[in-house]
Every structure is written in structure tokens, then in C-alpha cells.
Amino acid sequence: MDNLGRYIGLENQKRFWILDEENDAMKLTEEQLAQLNELVKDGYGGPAELAKVLDLGIEMLFYVEQEAFTQREVQQVVTALRGIIGVLRG
Fold this sequence. Notes:
By secondary structure, the protein is mostly helical. Helices cover 54% and strands 11% of the residues.
């Protein structure tokens, strides 16, 4: 793989993934970014409001019944939510 990464996908579905050379993490396509922007705008009025809702979701995780999920599963959700919140707040 070169320094620019590589593209994989199906042209007829207009979906392409860019694999990051360091960790092979998938990045959002332009279509996915547009859908996410629409969701944030139409569903929540903007990034700040969605960040508030996600913060509330993190708070709710503290009240999940014991043994409903593993500690690791809850930590993964919190990590993902905090990452999204950080991006939304810029």
C-alpha cells in the first residue's frame, strides 16, 4: 500500500472506502457525510443539540442494570459517544 492509502468498493453502488495506512480505519464517504449532516440538522437542529442528547445518553449508561452489558461494552459505547461529542463541539 502506498502513502495515500487505497480505495476499495463497488462503483455501481457508489460506495468507496479509504483505508488509512496506519490503522486501516474506514472513513465516511461523501454520501455518508451528507446523510450525517442531514440527520444532525433535521433531527436535532444542529451539532450542539445532538451533543447534549449524546451527553444525556452517557449519563443514562450509569443507571443500566448490572449484568445487562459487560463493562467493556459500556466503555466502548461511552468512548464512541465522547468521540462524536468532541467532533460536534469542534
